[in-house]
Amino acid sequence: MRNPAIIPDNEPERYELREAPRYDFALTRRDLLSAAGAGILITVHRSTAIAQSTRPAQQSVAARVHIASDGRITVMTGKVEIGQGSRTQLTQAAAEELRAPVESIALIMADTELTPDDGGTAGSRTTPSTVPAVRKGAAAARQILIDLAARQWEADAGALRTEDGAVIDPASGRKLTYGELARSADFDPAFAQAVPDDVEVTATKDWKVLGTSVPRPDGRDVVTGAHRYPSDIVRPNMLYGRVLRPPSYGATLNELDLAPAQALAGVVAVRDGDFAGCAAPTSYGAGKAVEALAKAARWERPPQPSGSTLFEHLKRHAATGEGGGRTPRVNESGSIEEGLAAAGRTLRASYEVAYIQHAPMEPRAAVAEWEDGRLTVWTGTQQPMNVRRELAAAFHLPEERVRVIVPDTGGGFGGKHSGESAVEAARLAKAAGRPVSLRWTREEEFTWAYFRPAALIETGAGIVEDGQLLAWEFTNINSGASALRSPYDIPHTREQFLQSDSPLRQGSYRVLAATANNFARESFMDELAAACMRDPLEYRLAHLKDERMRAVLEAAAARFGWDERKKSRPSNRGVGLACGTEKGSYVAACVEVEVDRQEGAIRLLEVCQTFECGAIQNPENLKAQVTGCIIMTIGGALLEEIRFEGGRILNARFSRYRVPRFKDVPAMEIVLLNRPDLPSAGAGETPMIAVPPAVANAVFDAASVRIRSMPIRGAALRQA
Amino acid sequence: MDVTVDLNVNGRSTTVTTDPDRPLLDVLREDLGLTGTKYGCGEGQCRTCTVLVDGRPVTSCLMTVSRAAGRKIVTIEGLAREGGLHPVQEAFLSEGAMQCGYCVPGMILNAAALLETNPDPSDEQIVEWMNGNLCRCCGYPKIVAAVRRAAAAGALSRRGER
Questions:
Q1: Chain A residue with Cα closest to B129
Q2: Residues 6+ apart with CB under 8 A from A714
Q3: Which is the most buried residue in A6, A275, A582, B33, by most CB within 10 A?
Q4: Do A169 and A262 share a domain, yes or no?
């Protein structure tokens, strides 16, 4: 049976993350004995270890919900909290179905020993997959509690109600709390049953807890500094680690003398293949020890492409499928050749999107501890199950001997799908024979974490006399297939994604390639509208049938006052709009910018964004996600770009890599369209995709200069 | 060579014997167990590691422990007042001004310092003062709202005192 957590949406996510293991640790005789001692033959090869899933087909109620005899409720999920509000929303979901106060529920998240495998925390899947799974588990638990009470009272289960953590018999006024029911002998066997597939959950119209703005349950720990993030975990006798990094991408370690580092007080230094690092009583000491290692290291540095030739490089290595290369991913309708031939006029343009970094406030971090051949790692990752597999493979252990725990983490944004720090901390802990805490420096996080892929996107369109689109050609090179498909109604289309050779390590980033694809598509739609002397709003609507897309676009335009503001505006200002859909939700934005041609400056003054993701489960959290997406994407739109040369990152620090700050926040209006008649879609990603093209379109409106790159650089205005 | 440094942290005097060049941030976290102060960049650019030194906001990643000797240091763990949260903590909680929350201790301490010098700041003054603090979840509007709320609460309590 297919697990609902895996859906085709996640395909590009997996494509982007496929890479060879980072470290090839030596297998010692002791490792072999240890593994054999567990009675498990090591047959799991690394390449298959990533693909396989250990998910059971059906979850027992007890695996999801635990009720203690004192009435305390514990709910378990494999999802992680990285600032997107999953802890809040999943607690709400359980509270709703259990008819119990939110405060009475403790949520255990992402502990491979305790929680079910709900898949990674990615692809906006928590809301459409895990919220329903938790609701079903909680609803099944509630039904069991009702049945247990009915049996005790010899009453009709259908006549009983649940309220405030208790089962009530309205006829007699009798009441049994969940804690009391948990003490009955029938409780454990009943909870051991599988969650029935057809268990009924509360209809949206009857929601009491879902649909409301429940605050973060552990907010007090956050404001008092009591919450322990992965980098805050402390274990007895713990050391602090640092890893020796290569001087550039692809460099291999030829020679290393450990002695100078080992001579420092309390320092453990280790080399295992290309891995080398130190553990010391303080992170300062570990840093000094790694400096000593660096002086004693000889590297071989192969030549690497540089940023100045990035887009030529991507184009040259685009895998078109010819000559036996990797086959492109293609969507086709009608015949693009016929469409282009029949069109009266053809336009072409290409767009570039730079590499950017996620730069979560908390860099990668892990604490690793070995005990009796078992490994426990606390780490910040969005993929605890994959990291467990990664650790098991790296240390030649059966997975049962590895436990991964993810404390609520300081940001991810798609950037923490991997387990580098976990593997590194575990290797250092193994060498030291003591727990080791490893926290990447900001420079490491900027350099050695993976990047949002750079993109080269080539577009072409054939239009007929009135400007109506007949043919649409769209090719994304390197960055991915998310939101590749145009939402516009065009008879002849070919949309494809070609893999390429990425000079930098690349992977997932919030909403994946949808930002790049929507930037190119929505910029190009504007170019077409301009070429046909049509209003950008009217031109889009003339090609849009999807009612949900029309609704967000029309709502944004109306709220912003598009028609009036498009007509009358100061000469140095411009307005632009864009829309898009991805992962089951819909977004549209209207923006106003101010340009200074002489200075080459672009200032984003205002964003008005509408967003629709079905039934809203937590309005305040949704607004926070939409707000965060808008501001974060301003970074990619106007500020952020990784610069690199010869395998080195040139701006691997916040003083050289500008991210949005308080002063960059424009005037914002956010309109959330609630659709209680539709299932809820995730909302932490799609609100990213409308602002960048809307800004480029507004710059064109203000300055008549079309800037076809992200970041949108104002320098182009000076040259024009 | 290790030296002995006298520190006053959250109203308590303590002594650490350590390399004098270690960042105050590391000593707070690793020697004193005060992990509420967070590392973010190591170059004073994100101000996640902000603590108050003699009442002023300081990036503890750039201050060596020897320079902190003898000065009054307040970390997020020491901000709460007897029996309750500091008004700025209260305001962040009420506004829900947190997503991942990692930047929040630094934000709160810097905001507390602002309200000490300017109890009734305008939004522009809040933005100007807070601009050095990064939040990658980009929850800036709610943080501004929280500072505004804390200022209003302070004004109310001052009126109550009169």
A1: A662
A2: A595, A596, A599, A600, A601, A602
A3: A582
A4: no
CA dist A337 and A331 (Å) reads: 14
* Whole-angstrom distance, CA of residue A450 vs CA of residue A122: 16
Q: Determine which of A238, A662, A668, A685 to mutate to test the interface with B (most B C-beta atoms within 10 Å).
A: A662
A346: amino acid identity, one letter = T
Total number of domains constituting chain A: 3
- Last-in-domain residue among A408, A439, A470: A439
Of B75, B76, B134, the CB nearest to A661: B134
Interface of B with A in 48-107 (CB under 8 A): 48, 75-77, 79-80, 85, 89, 92-93, 96, 98-105
Is residue A36 predicted with pLDDT exceeding 50?
A: no
- In total, the C-beta contacts within 8 angstroms joining chain A to chain B are 171
Residue A472's SS3 state is strand
**Could you read off the pLDDT of A251-284 as tens digits, one per residue?**
999 999 999 999 999 999 999 999 999 999 999 9
B22, closest residue in chain A (CA to CA): A284
Residues B8 and B51 in one domain: yes
* Prediction ipTM score: 0.97
Q: What are the tokens at A612?
A: 């629709």
Do residue B74 and residue B92 come from a single domain?
A: no
- Domain end, chosen from B78, B112, B138, is at B78
Strands B3-9 and B12-18: antiparallel
* Count of all residues that appear for chain A in the document: 720
pLDDT at A497: 96
Looking at the structure, tell me whether residues B94 and B62 fall in a common domain.
no
Distance CA A394, CA A368 (A): 14
Domain identity same for A375 and A407:
yes
Closest Cα in chain A, distance from residue B146 (Å): 12
Determine, yes or no, domain membership for A671: yes
Distance of CA A614 to the CA centre of its chain: 20
CA-based angle B23:B138:A690, to the nearest 5? Answer: 145
Structural domain of A252: 230-302+364-439
Collapsed DSSP state (helix, strand, coil) of residue A122? coil
Domain count for chain B: 2
Residues A128, A252 within the same domain? no
Chain A residues touching B40 at Cβ < 8 A: 361-362, 442
Cα A173 to Cα A159: distance, rounded to the nearest angstrom? 12
Per residue in B23-73, pLDDT (tens digit) is 999 999 999 999 999 999 999 999 999 999 999 999 999 999 999 999 999
